[in-house]
Amino acid sequence: MSESRNEFTGLVEETEESHNDTTTLLSGSVTSSSGKYTVGRRRSLEEEGGLGGDDNDGEYTFDEAVEHMGFGKFHWKLLILCGVGYFAEITELVIVGFVAPAIEKDMGLSSVEYGLLGSSSFIGMAAGAIFWGYISDRFGRLVSFSLTVWMTFIGGFLSAFSPNYPILFILRFLAAFGIGGMLPVDYTIFLEFLPTLKRGSHIVLVDAVGVIPALFVSAIVAYCFSGNDDIRWRWVLGIVSIPVGVMAVLRRHVPESPRYYLAINEVDKAQKILEEVAAANGVSLPPGRLAPLRRPAGDAADGGGGGSHGNISLLFKGDTLKATTPRLWLLWFLTQFSSSGMVFALPKIFDETFSVSKKRIALDLLWGVFGLVPGLAIAYFVVERSRKYSLAGYYVAAGASVFMFMLATVGFLRNEFLAVLMSVALRGAMEGCFAILNCTSVEAYPTPVRASGLGNAQIFDHIAGAISPLFFSIFNDNTKLRPIAMTLYAVAYLLAFLPAVTLPKDYVGQAIKD
């Protein structure tokens, strides 16, 4: 008994067969002093005398185990590894928008080809969201979690060596196909390890650890590889893909979601992963064994990932989801239509409005990144007050920022400082919208269709993203029509206010559904 106690209150040894590479990466050093927590009945392993207690002590539910363990070292490391999905999406959108004018000039693209270059990302992400969301719900989170990041890295890195436009388009599509799967799977697997306390705030942190580094890296790389008259776009595309490759190596150590195992009636596998997470966090599980999932009468277990897993009809099962799903689809469409349009438009507008060097444009975009910090910091706190009212507030702020940016770039009000200031405000409001919308969307669905639910919602996100750059390109051919495009982007944000405030359920403090 003392040997078992020393194993878990001292250093978790890599040679221990019961703790494989997954535990080694995600646990590190575990000491008995780290087992002091304040939620539920959590006690240190030394006080409990080991993991799981005696089999005669009865059973505990999965939610009881998660609440008992709390948020610890395992979750912090998982948070960082899940943030890579959002990092990849943001770098994809920002960098393609920034280097698109240079690619247009270098490859002699037509207006349609130029617009399709931005749209290719969203076409790929839409296809990836459908495919990988279904694979994740049907066959487990881990397959999608591993393969999508490798696909994103390979497509992104090789695109830097594209000899012509068709190959560049295909490689950007491949990278985007991986990104489309990363987002729903990353948020799903992270949510399924989280306790209820500050769950929304922790999901906002996934956005923060993804988007803040992504935009800083993108802006710095763009600045370093921009001259006064040109952009070395191949270097930019290659360098921003390297962090994704690093994360692809590290993500192979993440375990399968125990909540998914429980949903397909693999209770022993779920129990084992919970034991590993408890060891990583330096706490014990409740006494006894993990109880099977309690199902309504007539609802059979889906052994092996069959049955209802991935069944899209479940997205509309019950009055709450019948009202929630269409609202989420509309919110994703409106949010991405405005956001992708403005992200794609900003470099072009700064270039054509203020006639400054490419280096200066990159610096103006870098200043815009600073808006993320207060935007996401506010979201971290307000999301625990209310999901839907916080989301609605961010839509109003985003719409107002776009309208003021438009005024700062047209007519007698034209002012570069005001334009930069409004881009800072827009970045903060925009990311606040996405952070809370991601949280609300992944919380809304039960385990058998959680990744599919978020993936299908993001189809509308990606459709809007594919349309929006083309929409801007058409209006931007005549600079006098550009204010019309920006006005519509502002209106789309403001229209999203209504479906946000009428969402039928707010998930603050509520358990997620299995």
TrEMBL record:
Compositional bias ranges of the Low complexity kind: 22-38
Key words of the record: Membrane, Transmembrane, Transmembrane helix, Transport
Annotated GO MF terms: transmembrane transporter activity
Organism annotation: Chloropicon roscoffensis
A family per Pfam: Sugar_tr
Protein location: Membrane
Protein name per UniProt: MFS transporter SVOP
Region span, Disordered: 1-57
